[in-house]
Every structure is written in structure tokens, then in C-alpha cells.
Write a structure and sequence with these properties.
The structure is a single chain. By secondary structure, the chain is α+β, with helices and mostly antiparallel strands. It is 20% helix and 37% strand. The chain contains 1 helix and 14 strands; from the N terminus they run αββββββββββββββ. The strands form 4 sheets. Strands 1, 2, 3, 4 and 5 form a 5-stranded antiparallel sheet that branches. A 5-stranded mixed β-barrel has the order 9-10-12-13-14. Strand 9 and strand 10 form a beta hairpin. The longest helix is centred in the N-terminal third of the chain and has 47 residues. The N terminus is likely disordered.
């Protein structure tokens, strides 16, 4: 093989090597850019969905693409929220190629944290214990750490009962508490019957336990049965 032939072969090999390196670099740059595309989309989506009345500090963390994937070049990538996914807590963000030789569809791990004030237990509580103002203190917590809603308004937890044993430092959430039982079956309660333009007060015997905010069954002295909403430990309201 003459010198010119060898030189031509070497040039071809070098060109092929440079092309492979270029393709590899392009793929790496594309995959790195996917995180930026997803991060920007989620940041804007979270900002538009955050209620201004809730003082939450949002934090979005987009994970990396599975390093085993090798995606074809794409000129346009569309982010989207997969069915069943939420912009809250641990989730996923979808990315699909809409302009490329190969139309791929992938997802990246996503974590959306929401930091804000909440009522936190100062001491442990056993199941069945009524929560009082002496049991809690305000602190900043991650609202999105659990799917159950935070009880940010004191009227939502004050006087409620723990459904299970709770630890110090836990923020009060909806699935931790239930309304307190305020009277037993057989108790005599005050009944307020309200209708259009009138209100009548009387007494009845409870035929079921009374829980504030829930319906209780009653029996009047005449034997008539009725149901009403429990207002407090002594009062049930019936609307006609």
C-alpha cells in the first residue's frame, strides 16, 4: 500500500472517530438538557398552581435520566404530567420527543417539596387523646412529605382525638385525628328544631353516640325517631 493510500485510510479512520465522538457528545448534551427542560416546566407549573393565600416555599428537584437509555436526537421535547402523577411530593415528569427521526417517550423522577408553617406536636400522644393548644407549637415543615393534608387552621384540630399513637415533632395532618365523641347512647340531649321562620327547643334521648359535626339518631318522649347534626356535648340540631 503506497503512502497516499495509507494516508487516506488514516484520515477515514480519524474522521469516523471524530464523528462517533461528536454523536456521543450530542447525546450527552441532549440528556443533560432534558433535566433543564423538565426543571423549567415544573417550576412554572408549580408557581402557577400555588395558592397565594398559603405561605408555602416551593422546592422542585428533578432527577436524572436512567443512564442505560440512549435517546435519538430530537429537535423538540414536550414535558407533561403523566396520568396519576401530581406536582406534590415524590412523583414523575414525562418528556416526549415531538420532532425527531425516533419519537421517544421517557420520564424523570421528580420531588416537589412545599415548606410552610404547621402545627407540630411538642410531646407524644397516645391513641384516643384529645388534642389541646398545650400539645402543639408552630414550626416550618414540608407539607408535601405526606399525602394527607396539613391541618393549618386550629379549628380543624382543636378538640379532635388522635386516631393512633403520635410522635413528638409530627405535624398534624387530616389522617391523624378524628372528631371527639361527646355523648353516649342513652344520654339526654337538647334538640333545636329549625324551619322556615321558626325554632323549637326540646329534649330527646340519644340512640347513637354523639360526634361533633356528625349525625346522631334521637328518640323523643313520644316515641318518634329523628336524626340531627351534633353541635356540641349537649346540643343536636334538626333542620326541617
Amino acid at each position: 500500500m503506497d503512502i497516499s493510500a495509507r494516508a487516506g485510510r488514516l484520515a477515514a479512520v480519524m474522521a469516523g472517530g471524530l464523528m462517533a465522538a461528536s454523536v456521543g457528545l450530542s447525546a450527552w448534551a441532549q440528556e443533560a438538557n432534558l433535566q433543564e427542560v423538565a426543571q423549567d416546566w415544573v417550576n412554572r407549573a408549580v408557581a402557577s398552581n400555588t395558592a397565594p393565600t398559603v405561605p408555602l416555599r416551593m422546592e422542585v428537584v428533578v432527577g436524572a435520566l436512567d443512564n442505560r437509555l440512549r435517546l435519538a436526537p430530537c429537535a423538540a421535547v414536550e414535558p407533561y404530567l403523566p396520568v396519576g402523577a401530581r406536582l406534590w411530593g415524590r412523583s414523575r415528569i414525562g418528556l416526549r420527543c415531538t420532532d425527531g427521526m425516533v419519537r421517544w417517550n421517557v420520564s424523570l423522577p421528580l420531588t416537589v417539596n412545599a415548606y410552610g408553617p404547621a402545627w407540630v406536636l411538642k410531646n407524644p400522644l397516645t391513641a384516643g387523646t384529645t388534642v389541646t393548644e398545650n400539645d402543639v407549637v408552630q414550626a416550618e415543615v414540608n407539607w408535601a412529605e405526606d399525602a394527607s393534608p396539613i391541618l393549618h387552621d386550629r379549628t380543624l384540630w382543636l378538640g379532635q382525638v388522635a386516631t393512633r399513637s403520635l410522635l413528638a415533632g409530627q405535624a398534624l395532618r387530616h389522617n391523624m385525628l378524628r372528631p371527639a365523641q361527646v355523648f353516649q347512647v342513652g344520654a339526654t340531649v337538647r334538640v333545636v328544631v329549625q324551619g322556615a321562620g321558626f325554632s323549637v327547643t326540646g329534649e330527646a334521648q340519644a340512640m347513637s353516640v354523639g360526634v361533633v359535626g356528625q349525625v346522631a339518631r334521637l328518640r323523643f318522649e313520644s316515641g318518634k325517631l329523628a336524626s340531627g347534626m351534633v353541635l356540641d356535648a349537649n346540643t343536636v340540631k334538626i333542620d326541617l
